[in-house]
Amino acid sequence: MSGVSVWSRTGRVKQAAQLMLGWVALLWLIEAVDYATGHALDGYGITAREADGLGGIPLAPFLHFGFDHVASNSVPLLVLGFVTALSGIRRFLAVCAAIVLADGFAVWLISPAHSITAGASGLIFGLFGYLLIRGFVERSPLGVAVAVVMAAVWGTTFLAGALPTDSVVSWQAHLFGLLAGAAVAVFSRPRAEVAA
Asked: Which of 3, 48, 72, 90 is deepest in the core (most CB within 10 A)?
């Protein structure tokens, strides 16, 4: 039996690694296409408070404003996505979808008029918020340990990024991504089994 669980864990680690490496590679490929087309894809981000801007909500996390932008998002997305995906690919994708939709709608609603928001950072902040809260909600010692390590490594950076200190960076995407991730951790916790 122990051999099965070891293989199962190894398979899960491999799946999570492949998924996140593929995801980050896709972001670089999309940015290469964007560059080759004279940044034609940039306009498909979230355009604040315009009806057609709602269509940018699912697209924005895959679009970036240049290679520096995608480079700055690659490592945190790779790490946080990998750690989150270890709990299962289906669960990971559901968490990502909920964060992207909640964060994207908030960005659409409160960002400055006519602004276009794109980039994976809202999702990254969401995954950080999710991992920060999940262990405590699920009362998992390993999850709490992950939260403590994440907070120690990136806590200051993420909290600073969620404040309106830089007019070029979408603090709205960061703040609401963080809040969306925390909310997903609270509302998606496994239900306790009822004793018969």
From this structure: 48
